[in-house]
Amino acid sequence: MPWQSKEYLKPPIGGPADLATLPVAVALLPAGQDPVPGDWLPAEWIAEGGQLKAMILIGSGTLLPLTKGITYQVWVRITAEPEIPVLKPGTVYAS
Questions:
Q1: Residue 77 and residue 58: Cα distance in Å, rounded?
Q2: In what order do the strands lie in the sheet with 51-59?
Q3: Where are the beta strands (DSSP E) in the chain?
Q4: pTM score, whole prediction
Q5: What does the alpha-carbon distance between residue 74 and residue 13 come to, in Å, rounded to a whole number?
Q6: Can you name the residues that pair with 41 across neighbouring β-strands?
Q7: How many helices (H) and strands (E) does the chain have?
Q8: CA 41, CA 52: separation in Å to the nearest integer?
Q9: Residue 62 — left, alpha, or beta (φ > 0 → left; ψ -120 to 50 → alpha)?
Q10: Do 6 and 94 contact (CB within 8 A), yes or no?
Q11: Burial label, 16 (beta-carbon count in 10 A; 0-12, 13-18, 19+)
């Protein structure tokens, strides 16, 4: 993704049909870094092509800007008390 771009990030998340009723948050950090509490931002659930995805706007002018040349790890946290799974569904390279 070009670092100047502003686009929706939509990592696919597998799970039960009622997953979309649970709170979801996303963190986007340089690869090799783990998220801390202040890194998580609320995301939305969407269904595209029969797949559930956690959607959040990233890039220029957002709370998740990109720096050219960095590979970012995408983190997704689902609050499903008492469980709070944290997933790593992929990476984004800022070109």
A1: 17
A2: 6-9, 51-59, 44-48
A3: 6-9, 24-30, 41-42, 44-48, 51-59, 71-78, 86-93
A4: 0.94
A5: 12
A6: 26
A7: 0, 7
A8: 18
A9: beta
A10: no
A11: exposed
Strand order in the sheet with 24-30: 41-42, 24-30, 71-78, 86-93
Rounded to whole angstroms, the Cα distance separating 41 from 89 reads: 16
User: What is the chain's length?
Assistant: 95
pLDDT tens-place values along the chain, 95 residues long: 999 999 999 999 998 878 999 999 999 999 999 999 999 999 999 999 889 999 999 999 999 999 999 999 999 999 999 999 999 999 999 99
Calculate the alpha carbon distances from 95 to 1, 69, 80, 87 in Å: 6, 6, 35, 24
**From CA 19, how far away is CA 53, in angstroms rounded?**
10
Strands 24-30 and 71-78, by their bridges, are antiparallel
* 28 burial level (CB within 10 Å; 0-12, 13-18, 19+): buried
